[in-house]
Write a structure and sequence with these properties.
With 745 residues, this protein is an alpha/beta fold. It is built from 25 helices and 29 strands. The mean pLDDT is 97. Bound molecules: ligand MGD (2 copies), iron/sulfur cluster and molybdenum atom.
Length: 745
């Protein structure tokens, strides 16, 4: 007998509502939930394969503990005993910073990943914190921190209402969008065109998204900051700056004008390989559109001037008056956001409060660059102790970070490592303990992070579609127990972690004059919390304290978990609204258009104009049926065009004697790999493209299907030394490489 159950899809940032078909405890089908208030039935091939992803026989079912050098099945009790012993020995012997924490991408796709890592970091008190953000969007956080005073205040393009969309280094037809949560991004782009709007795409590849565009600019990789600075220059020069209703909230317009003075279209055209006249047209079209949104993603972030490019994206939105207005780029307001405080000067955003030990990289947002993880483990300095123990949650940096071979070796040298991961893969194979979370069907879901980036305010929650199998432990409980084991409270009841957070949060709220619960008794509020589990009670608390919340009875028709559970397809909270100046947390209380660290980095951008680019550079690419490093083990999602081939333009292929389907050796600063060439004019001349997340050929993993067609690790071409200095973000695009034909693979 089969039944259906609702489940928000955790497989990309679009957060589509799915209707799962469940037989017994097995998910046998998935379709888009037509009643979902946000996704309205949209689904992509990954979501449609939810059952296969969920039921992958290679997923671990029990914890693994290393004994006599080998990972063996163990009980949860044995596993947490080993975690407590392993981590406490390092903390006691070498101090908190000797324990590193690595948080990977799926943490933003689980409730556990949103609710527990902050408690772990606070409890450990370590500065050795690394996340996927520094191989991804850290430049955007830094730019938002500097402009708006809040690293998490990221404006998103108003896809449903804009008249003009300028996409830079993003390919939402494959990625389904990022830092812009929008189910059916492709449909929204088509709707934009259907209502007479225009789409411009800046990408060195003619992607599926670029093919949909009215205008495609095949920029030279890494040159976007120059291109965008020249657009800003044109807006000033041609008197097209019109900051409209933003004007009272802005500081530094005149200084900004001065700062971009050298970046004329003529000066940057050669480096960008884009005609000066075309850059002028881009700027004029942007200014002329009734409403417009500039949006940059991976291709604009993972480059040497990632923070400057991210800053310029918002500068252009601001100079054209499009920030914070419908049809432009707006700040979403999620249901679990904190109660908005009145506008006014605040603490601002600080960078570089401490530095990494070996290369002295500044911290950003409390994190050190993932590129520096290997050296922080394998290099001794006089400054302090190397990392000797590592807690890895949902991350596979051996494939996703630069120089996997060095990291692979470094992980093997640790005193202790624990991975919270469903797979025994390239990274977790080094762990002393592997703690496997249950598959997504057995986990509850709410998008804490993505609702703060969504193109429409809405809120949804789905309980586990299938009960926990015997022997399984919820990931929330795994992380709560891990926190207790790592912080000297091993064996305490895991609910202690939730109780602690609830007590602290409510304790603060009742003292906060702006909180709806100001002056009330925390114990009375705690007793009123609904929910069957600790994480549900925490969700209830956040919803009720939040901007749409019931304020624990103050606004009886407001949100609560109980109300959300009564709306299984979610609750629509309306289109994005203008919110300035409330989100600003700068010291001035204004948008600080030319923050000091940005101004100090502009000479480096100017300097880049003097280097004439030559030689081939490498960029990445994504495929709709893949996701970073962990979905190559699902047969339904592999094969066809989803392959680890090197895309190369016919002119370059001919010059180098490379044939379609032939083998090619790619050499970079960090090493070399050999793969198959795919000759295509989908990349511009001078640029080659290889996807990331491949290279499943290391021993000791349990990825039966992925190992059959392992591909190669593109990040082995990097040595980890190329970073955007402001954010510590790795340079993954526009990387110089050399190619040679080889006889066979
Ligand atoms: N060259 C190049 N490199 C890149 C990129 C690029 O564009 N080019 N992109 C970068 C980007 S944007 C990112 S975000 C990173 C991603 O890099 P990572 O953060 O390392 O993420 P993944 O490679 O997706 O690996 C995720 C890990 O989480 C595990 N996992 C899956 N589901 C769950 C779960 O529910 N719970 C837990 N605990 N674990 C789970 C998987 O088995 C896997 O081990 O890669 C980066 N690397
Ligand atoms: N199917 C699928 N979906 C995913 C993922 C996945 O791996 N697969 N990963 C998820 C994650 S973690 C993230 S962060 C998002 C990323 O989402 P997107 O940013 O949309 O990701 P990509 O598809 O890699 O698009 C980046 C584009 O930038 C281009 N590019 C490279 N260098 C430059 C440059 O210097 N300038 C410009 N202008 N463009 C450049 C590339 O050619 C590429 O087309 O996708 C998410 N969704
Ligand atoms: S677009 Fe993303 S969230 Fe939607 S079904 Fe596909 S993988 Fe899932
Ligand atoms: Mo990412």
């Amino acid at each position: 007998m089969s039944r259906t159950a609702l489940r928000i899809c955790p497989l990309c940032e679009a957060t589509c509502g799915l209707t799962l078909t469940v037989e017994g405890t097995r998910v046998t089908g998935a379709r888009g939930d037509r009643d979902d208030v946000f996704s309205k039935g949209f689904i992509c091939p990954k979501g449609a394969s939810f059952g296969a992803v969920d039921g992958d026989p290679d997923r671990l079912r029990t914890p693994l503990v290393r004994r006599d050098g080998e990972l063996r099945e163990a009980t949860w009790e044995e596993a947490f005993d080993a975690v407590a012993a392993g981590i406490r020995a390092v903390v006691d012997g070498h101090g908190a910073n000797s324990v590193g924490v690595v948080l990977g991408n799926p943490n933003v796709h689980t409730m556990a990943g949103a609710l527990y890592p902050p408690v772990l970091l606070a409890g450990l008190g370590t500065r050795s914190v690394f996340t996927a953000s520094t191989v991804d969007q850290m430049p955007k956080h830094v730019s938002s921190g500097l402009l708006f005073g809040d690293a998490n205040a990221i404006p998103v393009p108003d896809l449903d209402r804009t008249d003009h969309l300028l996409l830079i280094g993003a390919n939402p037809l494959e990625s389904n969008g990022s830092l812009c949560t929008a189910p059916d991004f492709p449909g929204k782009l088509k709707a934009l065109k259907a209502r007479g709007g225009t789409l411009t795409v800046i990408d060195p590849r003619r992607t599926r998204t670029a093919r949909l565009a009215d205008r495609h600019i095949a920029v030279r990789p890494g040159a976007d900051a120059l291109l965008l600075a020249a657009m800003a220059y044109v807006l000033f020069e041609e008197g097209l700056v019109d900051t409209g209703e933003l004007t009272p909230y802005l500081e530094g317009v005149a200084e900004l004008r001065e700062a971009v003075r050298d970046f004329t279209p003529e000066a940057v055209a050669g480096t960008c390989d884009v005609e000066a006249s075309e850059i002028r047209t881009l700027a004029r079209e942007l200014a002329a559109a009734p409403t417009a949104a500039v949006y940059g993603r991976i291709g604009s972030c993972t480059v040497p001037h990632g923070t400057l490019a991210s800053w310029l994206v918002d500068v252009l939105n601001i100079l054209t008056g499009n920030l914070d207005r419908p049809g432009g780029a707006l700040f979403p307001q999620a249901a679990t956001d904190r109660t908005p405080r009145p506008a006014g000067p605040s603490h601002g955003f600080a960078l570089g409060r401490w530095h990494s030990r070996v290369s002295r990289h500044p911290e950003a947002k409390g994190e050190l660059p993932l590129s520096a993880l290997a050296e922080e483990i394998d290099t001794a300095t006089e400054e302090g102790e190397p990392i000797r123990a590592l807690v890895v949650v949902a991350a596979n940096p051996v494939l996703s970070a630069p120089d996997g071979n060095r990291l692979d070796k470094a992980l093997g040298s640790l005193d202790f490592m624990v991975s919270v991961d469903p797979y025994l893969n390239e990274t977790s194979r080094h762990a002393h303990v592997v703690l496997p979370p249950p598959p997504p069907s057995q986990s509850p879901h709410h998008d804490f992070a993505f609702n703060t980036l969504a193109v429409r305010n809405q809120v949804r929650y789905t309980r586990p579609a299938v009960p926990l199998e015997p022997g399984r432990m919820a990931e929330t409980e795994i992380l709560a127990r891990l926190i207790l084991a790592a912080t000297g409270m091993h064996g305490a009841d895991p609910s202690a972690v939730d109780d602690l957070v609830i007590g602290q949060t409510l304790g603060k709220a009742v003292k906060d004059a702006h909180s709806p619960v100001h002056g009330r008794e925390p114990s009375e509020l705690t007793a009123a919390l609904a929910g069957d589990t600790g994480p549900e009670r925490r969700l209830d608390m956040m919803l009720r304290l939040g901007p749409y919340g019931d304020g624990f009875g103050v606004r009886p028709d407001g949100l609560s978990l109980t109300k959300l559970l009564a709306h299984p397809h979610g609750i629509d909270l309306g289109p994005l609204k203008s919110r300035l100046p409330q989100p600003l947390k700068t010291r001035s209380g204004k948008v600080e258009l030319l923050p000091r660290p940005i101004a100090d980095d502009l000479p480096r951008l100017r300097e880049s104009l003097r280097h004439k680019p030559d030689g081939l550079v490498l960029v990445g690419r994504r495929h709709l049926r893949s996701n970073n490093s962990w979905m190559h083990n699902v047969p339904a999602l592999t094969g066809g065009t989803n392959r680890c081939t090197l895309h190369i333009h016919p002119e370059d292929a001919e010059r180098l004697g490379l044939k379609d389907g032939g083998a090619v050796r790619i050499k970079g600063a960090g090493g070399e790999v050999v793969t198959e060439a795919e000759v295509t004019d989908g990349v511009r001349p001078g640029v080659v493209s290889l996807p990331h997340g491949w290279g499943h050929d290391r021993p000791g993993t349990r990825l039966g299907h992925a190992a059959k067609d392992p591909g190669v690790n593109v990040n082995q071409l990097l040595d980890g030394s190329l970073l955007d200095p402001l954010s510590g973000n790795a340079v993954l695009n526009g990387v110089p490489v050399k190619l040679a034909a080889v006889a066979t693979l």
